[in-house]
Design a protein that fits this description.
This protein has 364 residues and is mainly β. The protein folds into 2 domains: 5-172, Quinohemoprotein amine dehydrogenase alpha subunit, domain 2 (Lipocalin, Beta Barrel), CATH 2.40.128.120; 246-363, Sandwich (Immunoglobulin-like), CATH 2.60.40. It is built from 4 helices and 18 strands. The protein has helices at 5-16, 148-154, 162-172, 247-253; strands at 27-33, 36-45, 48-58, 61-72, 77-89, 101-111, 114-123, 126-139, 197-198, 255-264, 268-275, 283-288, 291-298, 303-309, 316-323, 332-340, 343-351, 355-363. The strands form 3 sheets. The chain has an 8-stranded antiparallel β-barrel. The longest helix has 12 residues, at 5-16. The chain starts with a helix and ends with a strand.
């Protein structure tokens, strides 16, 4: 069996300890994403990555995000994305792109003391908006001191414990408001039971659009007697109701907000959708790469299951959950479980009349 240079170095690091500690993905990385100077602090926790990113033109002009991602040690493929904007300093001059990134890269070791992340990036919320190449190199230290430095400096002497990593992540992480913003991927609750699955079926008929009510013009009012005033008409009688939008119009007219990213490492992908918390009549539609897959999905405490084949997907794919209604307790919320091979991923999804929930599936 042939091992890549990085894989071999990772094995050596486990055997020989501190001499190869620097040869891991955990650490500080410097370089560029697109044309923007970038510093990353990546921390491996199981197969997941946590940390922070800085996009800067100087020490006093930068944007800082918390980041999340995944690392596959078998293929050395890395995915990470900007999760929540933590800090913005300066006037933003020198930034050609101010939206959060999603990056896909190869972790490689061309030399004994050289480690690289090389790949490509895109707008986090739009895979079609490519933002340029990823060119990062492992660095000895950071130019931006923060709470993650403790983990990087002590990773092999206890700071790699999941509880320590989670605690450090919570220092700077400010949970985004729900539902406004939808900037972060929240940690979902664990499903207590495994409810029976319902087969995903495309409804035989399309939803019937409700015709727009016609407002009749009232006849001319007769002259009122002196001393008697005309009754005040309700403003609703002169207000036209908005036309009913089709699901395609809702999909096209709403902003997509990334909720999570799922690495595709197996042929079969099983998606289970539940109502999050209280069942209140939420109904959703699912679009894959711009094409409607399913509609009129009623969310309940039992899962609605969708199966996808990796062979039908591209390298990068967008699944969008559109709210058909908001239920009795807005916004429209879903708890999604994704089973990919032997891996399980969970996420809460939020959608309303302005935004739809975006999940990206990236092949590794």
């Amino acid at each position: 069996m042939k091992l890549s240079a990085c894989t071999a170095i990772l094995i050596i690091s486990l055997v020989f300890g501190t001499q190869a500690h620097s040869q891991t993905i955990t650490g500080a990385w410097k370089g560029k994403i697109g044309s923007i100077r970038t510093e990353l602090k990546l921390v491996k926790k199981g197969d997941s990555l946590m940390g922070t990113s800085y996009y800067y033109s100087g020490k006093n002009n930068y944007r800082r995000y918390s980041i999340k991602g995944y690392f596959d040690p078998e293929t050395n493929n890395v995915i990470w994305w900007d999760d929540v904007l933590l800090e913005e300093k300066g006037n933003g001059a020198g930034f050609s792109h101010k939206e959060p990134f999603l990056s896909v890269a190869d972790f490689n070791c061309p030399g004994e003391n050289k480690m690289l992340l090389e790949g490509k990036s895109s707008d986090k919320n739009d895979m079609d908006e490519q933002t340029g190449p990823v060119q990062m190199e492992k660095a000895l230290g950071s130019s931006f001191p923060d709470e993650w430095d403790y983990v990087l400096d002590n990773y092999f002497v206890g700071a790699n414990h999941p509880d320590v990593i989670d605690s450090v992540a919570g220092i700077a992480f400010v949970q985004p408001p729900v539902p406004d913003g939808f900037e972060g991927t929240l940690t979902p609750p664990i499903v207590r039971t495994d409810p029976s699955l319902k087969s995903a079926r495309i409804p035989a008929t399309s939803p019937v659009a409700t015709p727009t009510p016609q407002i009749k013009t009232p006849p001319a009012a007769e002259q009122s007697p002196v001393g008697i005033t005309d009754p005040v008409k309700s403003p609703e009688s002169n207000t036209k109701k908005s036309p009913v939008q089709s699901l395609e119009q809702k999909f096209a007219g709403r902003t997509n907000k990334l909720q999570t990213v799922i690495p595709v490492t197996a042929e079969k992908i099983e998606l289970r959708f539940y109502d999050n918390a209280q069942v209140d009549g939420d109904s959703i539609a699912l679009f894959l790469n711009g094409r409607m897959l399913f509609k009129n999905i009623r969310l309940t405490e039992q899962s609605y299951t969708v199966m996808l084949n990796a062979s039908d997907l591209g390298d990068d794919n967008e699944l969008v959950m559109v709210a058909e209604n908001l239920g009795s307790i807005p916004p429209n919320t879903s708890f999604m479980v994704a089973i990919v091979g032997d891996k399980r991923y969970e996420a809460r999804l939020y959608a309303n009349e302005n935004s739809s929930a975006l999940i990206r599936f990236v092949k590794q």
